[in-house]
Design goal:
The protein is an alpha+beta fold. Among the domains are: 240 residues, Heat Shock Protein 90 (2-Layer Sandwich), CATH 3.30.565; 106 residues, no CATH class; 50 residues, 2-Layer Sandwich (Herpes Virus-1). It contains 13 helices and 22 strands. Strands 8-7-6-5-9-4-3-12-13 form a 9-stranded mixed β-sheet, sandwiched between helices. Strands 14-15-18-16-17 form a 5-stranded mixed β-sheet, covered by helices on one side. A hairpin with a 6-residue loop joins β19 and β20. The radius of gyration is 38 Å and the shape is elongated. Keywords: Coiled coil, Metal-binding, Nucleus, Zinc, Zinc-finger. This is MORC family CW-type zinc finger protein 3-like. Its main location: nucleus.
Length: 642
């Protein structure tokens, strides 16, 4: 094995076995397909359409991927078939998803052992082969990728460059195509999906697909002729497993086993149409398809003063599918991740979806998770707190509007707050006016069909949703949280007032020991969320307060979790806090405690007055006895002298 030498230093080599090792980063088949979609979506390609299909070529089941982007020349294809080359840059606020220069290699080799790439630019056409079977057959000790460039001759015919004759020979010998005419037909297939000729783009064919147990491939192509699905495997404990281990003991969303459903939510704001098996994917804009939508902001210290918007709402399709939808550079990284109260067995947060774009976090190699950093953990913690606040606010609003209703909020959800349709041409989203039957819209809907004449042209910018309108730095009001904060503040102020009165009262005059007052429990909420300048300040619960009363230490009694939940439930039934008319048990307790203290103070004052009267009377009697004694002594003395 001869290594290349650069200034006497040997160059590193890549074993063919690395192609398989590298592909194992994709534990989920749809994650590998998403890597191929990302390459077409990124701004350096700029594809408007992406076709995914299943075909059979010479008795081989194949997956095909076609885009109508700018195509690749020889140098660009060589970098794509190599490892670690990624020079993608943002363009017109369109940030690239790919960043590691490894998506095609890991994704294609995860789906099958062999892949061939056809690409067409305005000047040239190229074909390249990345094949584990080819490397095994020739006994290669290093990864090699045959690439052939075709150009137009003077007779408007395409022919391979002579210097690529060896590459052409190996491709024809070790691929699905045995002659040049078959290769040229595949270049023509790039034009076929769009229905026009002389179009640029790329076509990828993957064969020798990964096999499943007792099945020819890991995919199910028969259950739905317009979809590619992962079959339902029954494990020993009869739990369905669709390749997502984190879904254990959770309801499995359709996007886990349906490629059509997964592609519908793959991008937060889609710029590319995806067609699966000749049928267009109807994109879902998650943030605009929720009910009871509210807006909030996460303000991390490491991004100060930037704020990260979060949209919360209820799933209108299936309340069992809920959690965070976490995007990075417009690409879905984690779907339906349950956090905070959603992980507890108390039915809190059921049906709630939170949509957040985490461009400040770093995705893992397979783009199915984020690196487990301190920033990621802080984000999950703070978003979980805000999700719980949203849950309390919605329940509080529902209880205020209809306190006698026994129907839970998640069961009240029937339709989104608004209906939005996407233009088939410009890909802009348009809000459909209320009262219009959304189900009557045709599959191919255009801006000029919009009932709202203010947004009846593709040239008009996309309007904002109601949850996005207004001050971009101000979250939606939180009356329930503000009410809790006022109650908490009032309780603290009352406690300080009691402490001041205790100090001012002093001891009873003449007593050797202080008269003990009954110890009253002072309830207050622990770990009360308060408004801080930064959300990353972790909440610390109050554990103890020392209160000296006539030499004795009184320890405040902290409410238990059950008491706090009962208090929250009672507070949620009140529409507003009115100090004069509020019937809340906490305020009644504080009022009763204050009255008890005042009555005790009056009783002590009366006892002090009685004591002073008794002391005055005793003193007067003592003075009279003293004078009488003196008179008696004077009389006896005078009598003796006489």
């Amino acid at each position: 094995m001869a290594a290349q030498i650069n200034r006497g230093i040997p160059a590193s080599m890549i074993s063919p076995k690395f192609l398989h090792s590298n592909s194992t980063s994709h534990t989920w088949a749809f994650g590998a397909i998403a890597a191929l979609i990302d390459n077409a979506y990124d701004p350096d390609v700029g594809a408007k359409n992406f076709w995914i299909d299943k075909t059979v070529i010479k008795e081989k089941v194949c997956l095909t991927f076609v885009d109508n982007g700018v195509g690749m020349d020889y140098q660009t294809m060589f970098k794509m078939l190599s490892f670690g080359f990624s020079g993608k840059e943002a363009k017109d606020d369109h940030n690239p998803v790919g960043r590691y220069g490894n998506g095609f290699k890991s994704g294609s080799m995860r789906l099958g052992k062999d892949a061939i790439v056809f690409s067409k630019t305005k000047e040239t056409m190229c074909v390249g082969l990345l094949s584990q079977t080819y490397l095994e057959e020739i006994g290669a000790e290093n990864v090699i990728v045959p690439i052939v460039t075709f150009t137009y001759n003077g007779k408007n015919q395409i022919q391979a460059l002579p210097e690529h004759a060896d590459c052409l020979r190996d491709i024809l010998q070790h691929s699905l195509f045995q002659n040049e005419e078959e290769l040229k037909c595949e270049f023509k297939a790039i034009d076929t999906p769009s229905g026009t000729s002389d179009r640029t783009g790329t076509r990828i064919i993957i064969w020798n697909l990964r096999e499943a147990s007792e099945k020819p491939t890991e995919f199910d192509f028969d259950k739905d002729s317009y979809d590619i699905r992962i079959p339902e495997d029954e494990s020993e404990d009869k739990k369905k497993n669709f390749g997502k281990p984190e879904r254990f003991m959770e309801s499995t969303p359709e996007s886990d086993f349906s490629l059509r459903a997964y592609c519908s939510i793959l991008y937060m704001k889609p710029r590319m149409q995806i067609i699966i098996r000749k049928k267009r994917v109807k994109t879902q804009l998650i943030s605009k398809s929720l009910a009871f939508t509210r807006k909030d902001y996460y303000k991390p210290t490491f991004l100060k003063p930037k704020s990260i918007p979060i949209t919360f709402g209820f799933n209108t399709k299936n309340k069992q599918h809920y959690g965070l939808m976490m995007y990075n550079n417009n690409r879905l990284i984690k779907a339906y991740k349950r956090v905070g109260c959603q992980l507890k067995a108390n039915n809190q947060g059921v049906g709630v979806i939170g949509v957040i774009e985490c461009d400040f976090l770093k995705p893992t190699h397979n783009k199915q998770d984020f690196d487990d950093t301190e920033q990621y953990r802080k984000t999950i913690h703070n978003v979980a707190v805000k999700l719980k606040e949203y849950w309390d606010e919605v329940r509080h609003k529902k209880s205020s509007g209809n306190p006698d209703s026994s129907v839970s909020v998640e069961d009240m959800v029937e339709s989104p707050d608004q209906n939005w349709a996407q233009c088939y041409d410009c890909m802009k989203w348009r809000k459909i006016p209320s009262g219009f039957d959304f189900d009557l819209l045709p599959p191919k809907w255009f801006c000029h069909m919009n009932p709202d004449n203010h947004f009846r042209s593709c040239d008009i910018p996309e309007e904002k949703a109601d949850s996005e309108a207004g001050d971009e730095e101000q979250p939606d009001p939180k009356p329930f949280k503000q009410q809790l904060k006022r109650v908490h503040t009032f309780a603290q102020d009352n406690k300080e007032m009691k402490r001041a009165k205790n100090i001012e009262g002093g001891f009873i005059s003449g007593s050797k020991k202080p008269s003990p007052l009954p110890t009253m429990p002072v309830p207050y909420t622990t770990s009360m969320p308060v408004n801080t300048e930064n959300d990353d300040e972790w909440y610390k619960p109050t554990v103890r307060e020392d209160n000296l009363r006539r030499g004795q230490e009184e320890q405040a009694v902290i409410c238990t979790k059950v008491q706090r939940e009962k208090l929250l439930s009672l507070l949620s039934q009140s529409s507003a806090l009115d100090k004069k008319q509020q019937q809340d048990p906490l305020l009644e307790f504080l009022k009763t405690t204050s009255q008890t203290f005042d009555s005790l103070q009056k009783e002590i004052h009366g006892l002090k007055q009685q004591l002073e009267q008794v002391q005055s009377r005793d003193k007067a009697e003592s003075c009279n006895e003293s004078k009488q004694t003196e008179n008696t002594m004077s009389y006896e003395s005078l009598k003796a002298s006489l």
